[in-house]
Design brief:
156 residues, 2 domains, 23% strand
Length: 156
């Protein structure tokens, strides 16, 4: 049965189709039955396509610099990093990104730079740019930083 609050708009052709469809039935009930919405079909699950094979990303390399900093210098480090170190990294051949992680409670920090090739990663050291970047923070450290080089195994 139709909801009395709903509005039903039919053009002339649709009205005549409904009247014709209800010819075997009699009266207003036939028209109302013909106007009733069709039952909703049962949902059929959409087949899930097989998962595409993971794409192999080109090799990437990471330099991890581990630092121990003075706790009272933490807030000075960010602006200095952005002004003195990051612009040079952004210009470096093969540079792909950086993460700078710090623990304010212990002073321990990790700087992870990502590179397209091992040669690009090592070029920063041989050019002296790495030593120069570390020297910007020499007054911040409580111990000399250490460096570790890795091949990136997985990136998502």
């Amino acid at each position: 049965m139709l909801d009395p609050n709903s509005s039903l708009k039919l053009d002339r052709r649709e009205f005549l189709r409904i009247i014709g469809a209800g010819a075997a039935l009699t009266g207003v009930g036939a028209i109302l039955q013909a106007c009733a919405p069709a039952p909703t079909p049962t949902a059929v699950p959409t087949p899930v396509p097989p998962t595409a094979a993971p794409t192999v990303t080109p090799p990437m390399y990471a330099r991890v610099t581990v630092t121990m900093s003075k706790l009272d210098k933490f807030d000075e480090g960010g602006p200095l990093w952005r002004e003195r170190v990051l612009p040079n990294l952004l210009k470096a051949e093969g540079f792909r990104g950086v993460l700078v992680l710090n623990d304010r409670k212990t002073g321990k920090g990790y700087t992870i730079t990502l590179w397209t090739t091992e040669a690009a990663m090592k070029a920063l050291e041989t050019s002296g740019a790495y030593t120069q970047a570390v020297s910007v923070f020499k007054d911040f450290f409580t111990a000399p930083p250490t460096m570790e080089l890795y091949e990136v195994f997985l990136q998502a």
